[in-house]
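Morning F.,

Quick status update on the modeling queue. The single chain you submitted on Monday has been processed. Sequence for confirmation:
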Amino acid sequence: MRSLDKAKITQAMATPLFQPSTDILPYRCFGKVQEVFTNLVKVTLPGAKQGELCLIDNQLAAEVITIKAQEA
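Structure tokens below.
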């Protein structure tokens, strides 16, 4: 049985799963977030496009998945 290296485990647990993406800047501020479901966001127009990445408080990334017809 292999012994576990506590330092390696601690380092692995501290390493983020995803590195910050720099290719999404600059970003535009528009519309209004109506609802958030886990990592899905319902927004109002103007300017929101389905599939776009939205940053919430510059920490949480979520994808626009739907735009209601009455909002368009």
